[in-house]
Design a protein that fits this description.
Layout lengths: L3 E7 L3 H12 L1 H8 L2 E8 L16 E2 L3 H4 L6 E4 L6 H11 L3 E4 L2 H18 L3 E2 L10 H8 L5 E7 L2 H13 L3 H10 L8 H4 L2 H15 L9 E2 L7 H10 L1 E12 L2 E12 L11 E8 L3 E8 L3 H21 L27 E10 L5 H11 L4 E6 L8 E7 L2 E2 H12 L9 E5 L6
Parallel strand pairs: 1-2, 1-4, 2-3, 4-5, 5-6, 8-10, 10-17
Antiparallel strand pairs: 7-9, 7-11, 9-10, 11-12, 13-15, 13-16, 13-17, 14-15
Length: 438
């Protein structure tokens, strides 16, 4: 095949290594799919001494990013350095030079996607970001193309493998959060600084991207309510099991009365759902379409080769467009720019949900009556309850499941209950997705 499409990488870490391995190993297959050669011209990285186990021709590796950005022969620039400062500048410089770009940088797309998309529209180039959400699961392309006929009603995603691993181990083995986190770090499933994962920030970045594609509206990261899994304990997982639920860190976005709910938090979901069966480091995204109904996308959400595969899939798509001279055949944000509209993002105080509540109370007569009275005055109705006689950390756990309630009302009730002399510490709240029990 005579035509070559030239690629330059910025960054040669885990994901880039996976992508380069695939480009090398699958060279013939990719040429058959594209009708042209994908040719790696330059790879820029600060560390050229580390052995990635990939034989490369002399002259490809460089420490100078300018050799990628300013090379007129390079058609596509792949940014895989992470972060949002230098990465944004590099992508915008590449776009201004007329180069197509690919990134796996979820934080960059979540925070500066609108800037990058506008620049790409002006520069008439393509932007690929399949690898930014759920690694090897092709959810971005499905949102942009496979589900183009659908009005998306809701998305529920297990999009962080670290949190899913921790919650799975706590469920299956009864360990406490701190010990399971240490194990995950030792196995390489959690970062040395796991705050972005366990605090929900990583999931929020991915949800901002999915929400924008699903509903054709910009979704600012600051508007996504975000809560991590740090307060979930083994006792809560055991109580959830008694009620017939599993606890997952879910990224949730949905349309309600023309407005968007976008939130990340620990969530109880019925054990009868497929999403509850997703264990360990795996990811899954449940999409509910108006006409197609429910779809579940499942697979490896991270790792060198799965995420590298997503990067290469973007390279294939862009290479096909280059061959046909058809940039942005599919709008980069799923909707044509002039048709995107701003929708209100509901604050968490306005949502309605079922709730799991765990109080730690003194073992005195009348405690339940006091709590129930406060909940009733705030329009909170109890659907089920478990009260254990044994003390834990000086108090007796009192667990309740509520009927549908407004978050604002529930928070007001919890503030009042927290001031009662019989309550020890703060109450744990976990939102519950599902139908209101009759």
């Amino acid at each position: 095949m005579e035509q070559s499409i030239n690629i330059g990488f910025i960054g040669f870490g885990t994901v880039a290594s996976g992508a380069v391995k695939i480009l090398t190993a699958q060279r013939d297959l990719l040429e058959r799919r594209i009708g042209a050669r994908l040719n790696i011209v330059k790879i820029a990285d600060q560390d050229l001494s580390r052995d990635r186990g990939i034989p490369l021709p002399e002259g490809i590796l460089t420490t100078a990013v300018s050799e990628v950005l300013q090379d007129p022969e390079i058609d596509i620039v792949v940014e895989l350095i992470g972060g949002t400062t230098h990465a944004k500048d590099f992508l915008l410089e590449a776009i201004s030079a007329g180069k197509h770009v690919v990134t796996a940088n979820k934080a960059l797309i979540a925070e500066y996607g609108e800037v990058i998309f506008d620049a790409a529209e002006t520069g008439k180039v393509d932007v690929g970001f399949e690898a930014s959400v759920c690694g090897g699961i092709p959810i971005i392309r499905e949102m942009k193309e496979g589900l183009a006929a659908e009005q998306i009603n809701s998305i529920y995603g297990i999009v962080n493998g670290t949190c899913n691993y921790i919650l799975t181990k706590m469920r299956d083995e009864g360990g406490n959060f701190a010990d399971v986190l240490k194990e995950a770090q030792a196995l390489g499933f959690a970062e040395a600084d796991p705050a972005l994962d366990i605090g929900g920030g990583d999931s929020a970045h991915k949800l901002a991207i999915l929400s924008s594609l699903a509903f054709g509206t910009p979704v600012a990261l600051k508007e996504i309510y975000t809560e991590g899994i740090e307060r979930v304990s083994a006792i809560d997982i055991a109580f959830a099991d008694e009620f017939g639920y599993d606890i997952k860190l879910l990224a949730i976005t949905k349309i309600v009365d023309g407005e968007i709910e976008a939130r990340v938090h620990p969530t109880m979901i019925s054990k009868e759902t497929l999403l509850s069966k997703v264990s360990g480091v795996f990811n899954a995204v449940h999409v509910e379409g108006e006409t197609v109904g429910g779809l579940l996308f499942y697979g490896q959400g991270a790792g060198s080769l799965p995420t590298g595969s997503a990067v290469v899939s973007d390279l294939v798509e862009i290479a096909r467009n280059i061959r046909r001279d058809s940039h942005q055949r599919v709008p980069v944000a799923a909707f044509v720019p002039e048709a995107r509209r701003v929708l209100r993002i509901r604050p968490i105080s306005e949502i309605t949900s079922l709730y799991y509540l765990r109080f730690m109370a003194e073992d005195h007569p009348g405690v339940l009556a006091k709590i129930s009275g406060v909940l009733g005055r705030n329009q909170i109705s109890i659907s089920a309850m478990i009260q254990q006689g044994r003390k834990i950390e000086g108090g007796v756990p009192l667990v309740m499941m509520t009927h549908k309630a407004r978050e604002r009302d529930l928070q007001a009730a919890l503030a009042e209950i927290g001031a009662l002399d019989c309550i020890m510490g703060s109450t744990l709240l976990i939102r519950v997705e599902g139908e209101d029990p009759s």
